[in-house]
Amino acid sequence: MGEVKTLSPSTKWAQRKDKIFLTIELADCQNPDIVLKSNTLQFSSKGGNDQKTYTLNLEFYGEVDPEKSKQHITARELFFSLAKKEEGPYWPKLLKDEKKPSFLHTDFNKWRDEDDSEEEDRGMDDDFEAMMSKMGGPGAGAESFDPGDADVSEDSDDEDLPDLES
């Protein structure tokens, strides 16, 4: 008989001094079994178009506080905000294991470097519309630009170019 292959969902992560953001990308997740302990996260659920069983067994590099951690499940993904047990320097990696699994990726949309200011982090949970309104709202920036208003006068570098030689 052939070996049964364990399926692991695509998983993204990012961190701050006080928390880890973990996103399990699995659409149509049915009754997920999630066990979060101070140094591990175990996940199992049927999901995806084919409703196959997906599992994760993550052993974290450091410890998290399950009581202060939060989770949010949508139709497309499971999002975790895992409170680090001790606030402090960034972990050098998410998992204790030396080898990074192929399903684990950096979440560049949420990633901040350790030396980035906290100011940059405040608006992360706002949606795109809220962010746009903070940038000037309607009547400012790109929304007020009308290409018909652009100055199309001839520029000095708009001269005809000579034909290319064969």
UniProtKB/TrEMBL annotation:
Residue span, CS domain: 6-95
Compositionally biased spans, kind Acidic residues: 114-129, 146-166
One Gene Ontology molecular-function label: Hsp90 protein binding
InterPro entries: CS_dom, HSP20-like_chaperone, p23-like
Superkingdom: Eukaryota
GO cellular component, one term: cytosol
A Pfam family: CS
Region annotated Disordered, chain positions: 106-166
Any Gene Ontology biological process: protein folding
Signal peptide region: none
Family the UniProt entry places it in: Belongs to the p23/wos2 family.
Protein's name according to its UniProt entry: Prostaglandin E synthase 3
Organism annotation: Stylophora pistillata
Gene that encodes it: PTGES3
